[in-house]
Amino acid sequence: MQSKNDKATKRYRFIFIVMLVIALYILGRTIYTMFPPESDYWKEVGRNSKTAIIPANRGNILSCDRQVLSGTVPKYALYMDFAVSDPDSISKEKTIAFRDSAFRVDLDSIADGLARIFPDRDAKWFRERLLQGKKRGKYSWRIYPKLASYVQYRACKELPLLRESMYRSGFHGDEMLLRLKPYGGLASRTIGELYNDTSSRPKCGLELSFDSILSGRPGTKHYITMRNRKVPVVDSPAENGHDLLTTIDINIQDFADRTLRSKLKEELVNGEIGVVVVMEVKTGDVKAIVNLTRGQDGEYYEMKNNAVSDLWEPGSTFKTASIMVALEDGKIDLKKSVDCAPGIVNMHGRKMKDHNWHRGGYGVLEVKDILGQSSNIGVSKIIDEAYSSNPAAFVDGLYREGVGVPLDLPFVGKGEPRVPNPRDKKRFWSKPDLPWMSIGYVTMLPPISTLTFYNAIANGGKMVKPRFVKAELKDGMVVREFPTEVIKERICKPSTLRDIQYCLEHVVSGGLGKKAGNKLFKVSGKTGTAQFSENGSYAAHKYMVSFCGYFPSDDPKYSCIVCIKKYGLPASGGGQCGPVFSEISQYIMSRDSMRNAIAAADTNSVFVPEVTRGSRKQAEAIVEGMGLTDKHLDTAEADSLPLSQVSDVLGMGVKDAVYTLQKRGLRVRINGCGQITKQDIAPGTPATQGKTITLTASPKKL
Asked: What is the DSSP track for 45-64?
């Protein structure tokens, strides 16, 4: 009888022998690969290794409430392999037999399924396309000429045969990442875009300025060919880009765009370029920025970020800065009066006119009325009398209050203010420069610089930098914030600020800015009208009209500038830009109070808003937030029809209509702005992918 020690010895001996055999086998295989023919094979695998870039997913640009303004969407090119590559002949024959059998049995089902997924082609077309590829026996036969969405690609993977693995069925989709803007042209020049090539290089806007955050870091991989198959090996994984949380409010942006677009099209306006910027007073957050340029077809498009890049002579909106300098330096007070008759005077050899000069001018005006009536003579006389002997002191005052300070905005091609200085030896300074500078000529400013100055007046004298991006996000979490930056803690003394605020409120209540006002809350601001300078000379009948201000006057929440570059008379900042300002301010105040402006004026009234067609769920959420849960909403659900059919978008706003139809794969063309009144493809019609539907819209009066 064996002892326990003998049994243990035999077991250990057996284990040792097994491990020795395995070790000898591994050593043998290692030696075998070092000599031909096996070494030749692995050398060939090494030579066939190809390095490739793994692209990183580009981060999204989001609105202030995290709606996607610019995002990367995967699209798929769909292919079918009708040939089989497999060094194992038995495996290859089995794969071919399976594909041939499944193809014969499932061909009609596959064709019918593809026709349902892609309704722009019928089942007969898909059947013939598949048979053609089968006959030619090619690799990577394109079975659908257009790119498919992710949803469509997944639907294809549910079809017979196609649901099998790529090597078993031969079906595969090559992914391509495309950059799309769900809201079309809204704020497109500020958001930016990418070049239309495979490089995905940013062209302009936030896409370019924050490319290092959005682009992420690509990875690398290489392919090795083993047994006639390419096998990917990841060397370093890609790091996806982070998202940008912007300050843009897409609803304010949409309303400002539609309001300005409608005004530009008016016959008496005949606008060439239009700009609107809305800013939050305390933070400097840019809630909307509209840049519209008339195209050759007469429609308006975002072609350039005019609000940031264009240098324009600001005209009469600059008079506020001039009067502020004189008040701050103690040269005048509000009781200062100036004789502006007869409406035309000789100012250092050049004629200075008020706009009513042909009626004899304004006569004697005090400071508040000089700004209220925008008297060129009144302002230029004040500044010329006070600073003609020392014009540099006036320019120093402008810089002291923040006029001409570079804003260092995050945009390539931004315009830097040009405020001439008599001390500059490179520029000739003449006597007329001072009075004409005081009324908004000679100096060149981008519209957003003018708005920044007025925003400081609204903000108790604190000048803050316009902010476009609030935070950097990763997976929805904030990883870096971009705080509000203060340019100047105080642009003037509190007493000067109170005087200027009083004057700007008077401009709207009793001066040329009446059309910018509102009966339900106070508005402050200044009108501007200037001849437009091109190539060093002033073009006849070419004007830049504007209105810049803030609201409500008693507790300012928002500032706004409206500029229109136009041809022909009439040219009036108050008459043509004022109404745009008024509509935008009324919309914002109405929206912020969750009621329209009429109900907001009476705190005891209960107002149920009119709800246009759109998402019932969103409308009910808003009404519930107003405490009106017992009210009935006569709204139609935007997506009541299936995605395979054209939806009924009549009565919707442009934004909702475009979103609804683009979800169905349609291209949308818009004529007009406001609510949709006509669509050229009837509701319920099959939604053909890529087909263009034309919508007609008309504005709805508030």
From this structure: HHHT-EEEEEPPPPPPEE-T
